[in-house]
Amino acid sequence: EDKVVQSPLSLVVHEGDTVTLNCSYEVTNFRSLLWYKQEKKAPTFLFMLTSSGIEKKSGRLSSILDKKELFSILNITATQTGDSAVYLCAVGNEYNFNKFYFGSGTKLNVKP
Amino acid sequence: DVKVTQSSRYLVKRTGEKVFLECVQDMDHENMFWYRQDPGLGLRLIYFSYDVKMKEKGDIPEGYSVSREKKERFSLILESASTNQTSMYLCASNLDRHNQPQHFGDGTRLSIL
Predict the structure, then answer these.
(1) Preferred mutation among A100, A101, A106, A107 to probe B, highest tally of B CBs within 10 A
(2) Blockwise average pLDDT, block size 10, chain B, 113 residues
């Protein structure tokens, strides 16, 4: 059965800390891995990863994919209270553009 | 920027009622999706549509139906609402080609009493 597992389920840190969120997957016909940030509203797209070892970076956020070990990490450096959110990982299917497997998310709480 | 708009942020209905959730996107996307989001279960796909009047069942279609009469609008229908359908409902859309992220609406938190 295809599945996506995120860890930890929740995390509390203080401003300025660095955090690493994990996403492992067992999905046949892997096409891509996506990270989203969900505050109180719509999940917003962060990164899409398709190739192993190539880091994607946006400001203090970065992500990398390991297709051999079947996982991805999302790093956030110098965390701020505005980073508090649920971070979702999703895996896309190679043969079905409409099929995405979602993890249950990691809830990050950044305290001042 | 893509805008996906869901008609209600919060909705309270009674058991047995017929409930309509509406979603509109403004970027001419072919694909539209309805998910429900429950704690610990992540996002689960209810239905998706890849064209007007075309639909396919997702992972949990029981108790739901959908309608797509126009490309920009995708409706989710709870035929006879039950308490186990209390949830957050998210609509999404994307282009029908490789490596296209989904764009989500703000969600409708539906409570069935």
Answers:
(1) A100
(2) 88 97 94 93 92 93 96 96 97 84 94 97
Burial category of B47 from C-beta neighbours within 10 Å (exposed 0-12, middle 13-18, buried 19 and up): buried
Cis peptide before A8 (omega within 30 of 0): yes
The tokens describing A48, both together, are: 């899409």
B42/A48 touch (CB, cutoff 8 Å), yes or no = no
For Cα atoms B28, A95, B88, give the angle at the middle one, nearest 5 degrees. 55
**Among A48, A99, A105, whose Cβ lies nearest the Cβ of B42?**
A105
pLDDT in 10s for each residue of chain A, 112 residues: 889 999 999 999 999 999 999 999 999 889 999 999 999 888 999 999 998 888 999 999 999 999 999 999 999 999 999 999 999 999 998 887 778 999 999 999 999 9
The verdict on whether omega for the bond into residue A43 sits within 30 degrees of 0, i.e. cis, is no
Candidates A68, A63, A67, A28; CA nearest to A45 is A63
Take residue A26 and report the two structure tokens written for it. Answer: 């067992």
Strands B10-13 and B108-112 come out as parallel
Cβ–Cβ below 8 Å for A98 and B50:
yes
